[in-house]
Amino acid sequence: MKNKILAALLTITLAGVMTGCGNSSGGGNTDTSAAQASGSTADSGTKSEDTMLGADSATVRLKVGTTTAPEGHYVKGLQEMQKLLEEYSSGEMTLDIYPNSQLGNERDMMENVGMGVQEMCLISTGPIPNFVSDFAVLDLPYLFEDEEHAYEVLDGEVGTSLLQQLDSQGIKGVGFWENGFREVTNDKKEIKTPDDLKGMKIRTMENSVHMETYQSLGATATPMAWSEIFTALQQGTVDGQENPIAIIESAKVYEVQKYVSMIDIFYSPCVLMIAQSTYDGFTDEQKEAFDKAAEEAKDYQRDYSSNYNKEAIENMKDAGVTVTEVDKEVWKDAANAVYDRLDSLKLNKELVEKIQSSN
Ligand code: EAX
């Protein structure tokens, strides 16, 4: 454990050094290339420009990491929270936002927040089941009918109980924000049916349900951290990947993947996390300001995400990307096989039934 903390502190220190020359005021985007947009570039020199520091005058500074691009929907939500937190705390508190995997990949950041060596992170639910197994039910294919169904479940009893389980990791799960419905991309051919996936190496998150689903569709699921994706695509380690439109467009994945198929196979939430020790150190007034800012930023981020997707699809089409609509019933039937393996995947069947019956 001591080595992990030392490694985490080294990561934080290196990130701090790199971002020392970062923008002094909140905001500030850069025109990042595709590789840089996912934090996968070897050239870390420009990474510091992606950091979005809050108001200099704030005395309570919360460092929040994400693997996503500065222009993406995660960071837009964090910028909104940065603004609201400064307003509701009368300038006392702020967020310092570190996009592009500056503070590590999603698993690293979750561990660092749990150890209290990083204040916050906003990560997809993908890696969470490796720490809290019940989260895996959220990764089942075609579990949620639409965003409204997802919000009802995630903001209700099921979501609340899942967030509370993060306490076991030293983490306060603040809320479910939106990553979105995940689409598959590749650079070889148009994917219309599951048969078109056969034999393709598809990068997935490090998530057993996603891997099992793609394997059952005939693909070779290749799990890796998001920051490794561009190198893997360039080297041919994988043929494609899958992510929501907002990630595909903001990380400029479309620059190296000419085909996007709108399979909507998983609804992917992301979770805003704060170290329990950090939150417990707030005064009552600071907790009130933090909670209010986080709740309002969640609603803002979800709205931003759905509006952004429409614009992002048009941007990609204008860039020459083939965006393919598919017959989702064919995909649902093919992916359904995973529901026969709930026991072997060690999924909480009661939770699955609760979610399915809530629609
Ligand atoms: O959380 O790893 C992924 O594909 C995630 O969707 C991405 O890092 C944003």
From TrEMBL:
GO biological process, one term: transmembrane transport
Gene3D superfamilies: Bacterial extracellular solute-binding protein, family 7
Keyword tags: Signal
Domain of life: Bacteria
Biased composition (Polar residues): 34-45
Spans annotated as Disordered: 27-52
CDD domains: PBP2_TRAP_SBP_like_5
Matches recorded under InterPro entries: DctP_fam, TRAP_DctP, TRAP_DctP_sf
One Pfam family recorded for the sequence: DctP
Signal peptide: 1-20
Coiled-coil intervals: none
Gene Ontology CC annotations of this record: outer membrane-bounded periplasmic space
GO molecular function: carbohydrate binding
PANTHER family in the cross-refs: DICARBOXYLATE-BINDING PERIPLASMIC PROTEIN, PTHR33376
Protein name, as recorded: Tripartite ATP-independent transporter DctP family solute receptor
Lineage: Bacteria, Bacillati, Bacillota, Clostridia, Lachnospirales
